[in-house]
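User: I'll paste a sequence; please echo it back and then give the predicted structure.

Assistant: Echoing your sequence first, then the prediction.
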Amino acid sequence: MSLDSRYLITRPEQLDALFDAVPAPSLKKEVDYLHPLYRQMIAASPFFALATSGPDGLDVSPRGDPAGFVVVEDEKTLLLPERRGNNRIDSLRNMLTDPRIALLFLIPGIGETLRVNGRASISNAPDLLERFVIEDKPPKCVIAVHVETVFFQCARAIKRADLWQADADIRSRVPTPGAIHAALGGTDDGATYDKEIEAKQRATLY
């Protein structure tokens, strides 16, 4: 696809002409520390998206555990357990070369989200891992985030998406993991993969 060059936006002033001025509350809500009210949002969240940048480009990946799994160590520090997954560890590899990190916390049933930007360090100190043990299994490592900016995002996007409205028929409209793997050469038997994946994931959550 080739975009019409007459309408390409390439300068800040072009963007400014499209949007109204930022209202004062949208500026005031951004702080450089974990305000007590923002801490409450983190404590209630069982899920966040993690964004990083590295030599091969950008990456964003999901992170989840029971609500409260992200620890607010102090007003400038978050601790994030890194659980087992597919072993690609794209995010962790990125952090080794570019420590910048962004988090987007979601809370089921709540429209507002919380955005945290900062810089990350990775540790596998035994005493730190011990703090995040679940089912007798520690995380692989712990990511410490030095917080630089924090602010909540209004609920418009969640409301437009109707994100928290359950749709019992959604599975029939979304390809299964087995179907995707079969199409891309990851397995010769997508149906068997789908039959086994739920039990396998349950057995290997931690």
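Residues 190-203 form the longest helix (14 residues). Strands lie at 47-54, 57-64, 71-74, 77-82, 100-106, 113-123, 141-153.
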